[in-house]
Amino acid sequence: MLEIREAMGKDAKKAVLHNIKEGLGQLEEAFVKCSKGKDFFGGDNIGYVDIVLGCFLGWIRGMEMMLGLNLVYESQTPSLAKWAERFLSEKVVKDVTLEHCVLDFLL
């Protein structure tokens, strides 16, 4: 994801952004398949895969703030966007997610 910050020129940034969105599309498909209509990758509760992938949400949100764009949003990745909101709203996660700290680090 840091590639977009280092990409030189408009075309290079567009290419990196395209790759990121393509990857998120694949993650959307994986979520739909794995969750089987449940709230999380493993079912009704947060599991190992949710924790592993959820660790990237702070970075993604920080990049979104830094670049002024949305990467995970309902019109593009609806199931993934809802999963991210559910994951980030869990008390155990909410207390340790510090998007502003990631943004400070990125800048």
TrEMBL record:
Domain GST C-terminal, chain residue ranges per copy: 1-105
Signal peptide: none
UniProt-listed InterPro entries: Glutathione-S-Trfase_C-like, Glutathione-S-Trfase_C_sf, GST_C, GST_C_Tau, Omega/Tau-like
Top-level taxon: Eukaryota
MF terms in GO: glutathione transferase activity
UniProt-recorded name of the protein: GST C-terminal domain-containing protein
CC terms in the record's Gene Ontology section: cytoplasm
Organism name: Solanum pinnatisectum
One Gene Ontology biological process: glutathione metabolic process
CDD domains per the UniProt record, alphabetical: GST_C_Tau
One Pfam family, short name: GST_C
